[in-house]
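## Example pair
The file below holds two records. Each record gives the amino-acid sequence first, followed by its structure token line.
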Amino acid sequence: MKIGTGASPGIAFGKALVIKNEELVIEKKSVENIEEEKNRFEKAIEESKAQLLNIKEKAAKELDEGKSAIFDAHIMILEDPELISSTLNKIESKGVNAEYAFKEIIEQFIAIFEAMDNEYMRERASDLRDVSGRVFRNLMGIKVIDLSVLDEEVILVADDLTPSEAVTMDKEKVLGFLTNIGGRTSHTAIMARTLEIPAVVGLKDITEVLKEGDIVAFNGETGEVIINPSEEEINHYKELKNKYDKEKKELQNLKGQESITLDGITVELVGNIGTPNDIEGLIKNDAEGVGLYRTEFIYMDRDSLPTEDEQFESYKKVLQAMNPKPVVIRTLDIGGDKEVSYLNIDKEMNPFLGYRAIRLCLDKVEIFKVQLRALLRASIYGNLKIMFPMISSLEELREAKKILQEVKRDLDNERVEYASNIEVGMMIEVPSAAIISDILAKEVDFFSIGTNDLIQYTTAVDRMNQKIRHLYNPFNPAVIRLIKMVIDNGHKEGIWVGMCGEMAGDKRMIPILLGLGLDEFSMSPISILPARKLIRSLNSKEMKKLADEILKMNTAEEIEKFIENYFK
């Protein structure tokens, strides 16, 4: 048995699909049979085209046109006569292997595109890299795994899963995730909870331990993983699954019920989403609104910026589906570990402390204005609240609000309608913002505490670093004191305070947050009904006493043990 971090609840068992992103090593070799080598190259091209056509067909059914169009561009590269003939000529004239010949030619093409003045043409270099990787793998007999086209039900096993992989994968065929790295706040964990797929992360070497086709069973809550389980163990996991499914079914009785404490204090339980497709999960789990719509996913897994109309349609879809419930939409938060190749952002030593989120938007104002225009236009279709991420100073907040006012004036001049009652808020995820939250509260309609980053920045711990992950702890007294400060400062100025970090859906943290006075809890859809069940069993006055006791404690370990014993 292996133990990792339970990241998304549920019981899963099935066949492992191990994804290894091994570096391709291409060596120069002399070949004797030139025609055979040329045929091998042409066959690899045809295989690559067939794979892309298959993906495109699936993407056309399940994704929007912008995403499926990417595959058209990739197929066109494989049909470029100059690329093909140059590689074949290189094989023939130099007597070299197809891999080396293709590498030489593709690198020339990439260099040409990267040197162009036209930004659109420069972006094609990343398409060439993507397509060439597929061709190399087919030439070298390395299995090309397309997560968007899976033939059977599998448990995905990887070092980590990128947000774009999670967005495009065949969700009907994925029974669960197992990864080497990550914690409860990693993107893989967050995505798994949003999709209601069981997951265990932080398993260190699971991609080495598991082999293709191994059977694996795991518990997404406890983090227990069993490789090639016995019949007795499979039966045990089947019983666990039946029990989990039964409990999940019983939670359905809480639909339509208020999220209210025993002594009559009502809070809002809302959901975090990444795409309009996630709304289905919110409705299924009776969310009272959207507390965080991560708009960066509109910008990812494509090769150019989304247009104003594309964004408008996405925001409109979410607002209409949830109307009249509130929908908090966060403006673009690209950077850190969320890369967008076509923006050509320079590599940074420490991207989490770098050019990201509101910093990028205040620099690339035109990108920011396009998003704000789309948001304002969509506002008439529901109850929109706009939220700025990564604010670290009053100057940044005022600049973002100023740009929003400029966009409103532009729309007024164009006689374009938008809602007049849009609340504007900000995330508190940087310690400097928490410390001056008394000042910031005077200038916004709400705060939403982003604890995933707040913990990271407060404790100076990279949440993806396995060696120091134990220091990334939501029970750290400094984190809890900052949260208390933000809630109190918000309430003094008469604004509501929510939380959209993963702490908001943590059953151990909910009683503390309730006692600290949090108004809104935003979490993965799968956590909403269990959280409602818990809140309806608590007395807010007792939880305030509990929170007061915790604020006097000195260590995370002391707080954790106190909570564990309190609720035993």
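Second record, same layout:
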Amino acid sequence: MRRVAVAVAVAVTAVFAAAACTSGNPPVGPSGTSSSTPSTVRVTPGPPTTLRVLAGSELADMQPILDEAAKATGVTVKMTFTGTLDGAQTVAEGRADGVYDAVWFSSTRYLETIPAARQRLASSPRIMGSPVVLGLREPVARRLGWDRTPVTWSDIADAAKRGEFTFAMTDPAASNTGFSALVAVASALEGSGRVLDAAAIERVSASLTGFFAAQRLTAGSSGWLTDAFLRRNLGADPGPALDGLINYEASLIAVNRTRKLPEPLVLVYPTDGVVSADYPLTLLAGVGDAARTAHQRLADYLRMPDVQRAIVERTARRAALPGIALPPGLPDGLVELPFPGTRSAIDALLTAYFDRIRRPSRTVYVLDVSGSMAGARLNALEQALSGLTGTDTSLSGQYCRFRSREDVILLPFNQTPGKPLAFTIDEQNPQPSRDAVRTAITGLRAGGDTAVYDSLVSAYKVLDSATDQDRFSSIVLMTDGESNSGRSLADFQAFVASRSGATPVPVPVPVFPILFGEAAESQMQAIATATRGQLWDGRNGELAHAFCQIRGYQ
């Protein structure tokens, strides 16, 4: 990076000091015991052991270091990747018991607000850290003066409200980066230094609305968001360039290291604080002695000074141990903002964000009701979609439900596209609107052939005809077979390509196909690729889960 906007932070006491990336104090795990590892500890190989770890997907870049750890310690790590909220629900419901030995997320702070999850967490040594910050294209940072002067979250929110820059951020219910950013800006704007509660969230809602008026792209994963940001700014996708990207500091540095952008991103560190990932390698309570010993050997190895330096060099994350140099050019002494300490505060913040603060969404659900869907398959579709109307009361279900101000459009199809059924979820009293959507879903009837591509074209036309275009727009396709009527895949791909030549160029609308039954995977992947969406698998009883996961991209 050629420039870094450095905030000279005043030392303050953070409520969750253990989460601060630059703190020299050892973090305390749920059991209350210190997780520090003295630099004099020598790690010796033990018996070959596999440690089963449920992890955040961004930790895939740790694999080379884990490979070296296996040689040094005898501990082979088998990681299964999942999202933050799904991981929390898996632990809280006991579905991780006996399946995994440890969890490794960017933070366990959300898990610790859920009693059923907290009681399943044991020792939790911190391995590394990375604050969530704003990366701005260099010309934009220079125009705003943020490449050379200190900036607060209030400054950023005011500029966003005035339309002086745009940004991309992940969905805070699906991804830790989005939630960390939401907590940081809300806490900083509230300004008291205390942990957020429902009353504080109400006080800053108007300012938060101004900040999020500048958000132009959302996603359920940091990796997908970064790829979409790069495509837009490199001209690979139609639509205006995006000025900023909110992500982990390490991920923004990785973008700069690729040198794909014509100018580097300037990292903006607000002087009033950040929320950081601290990546604790958390042992699950109740595991056997072999897993417990393997976890300790692995954690000791990863916290050795030489290994900590390797983590800094290879991943651009900050070391957990004091005295290890930061990645070149990065500021020290960041203020760590307090994290909400209760589920009620977290729920209040997320509810306010989805129902009142962020730009609302508009989604067309293109639903196969051809003859092959009759019976059990149509029942499965009705049950899965109905979960979004409030019938799913699980931890993830409450954040997947349709949100206030959201436009929900059902487009059933067989050999021809059906009549779109449009609903807007009422802002003041949302549940009757959700009930109306559920009534329409349960009224679907199966019969006829399958015109997938004609129906997708119809969905685009529905979105293009909307008078209010200031929304996050997407299309969800659910089909159980191949298209056998109307346009071909090649015709649809040509249609999508023609949109990029339209005047004015429309904002990209991704299609998220869901595999079901005998749906042709290659065709569904081609649809996702052509529209810059993502393919989801709803087979093997996963249909409801797929619909819920896609919500992070809407």
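Notes on the second record: The first strand starts at residue 4 and ends at 5. The chain has 19 helices and 18 strands.
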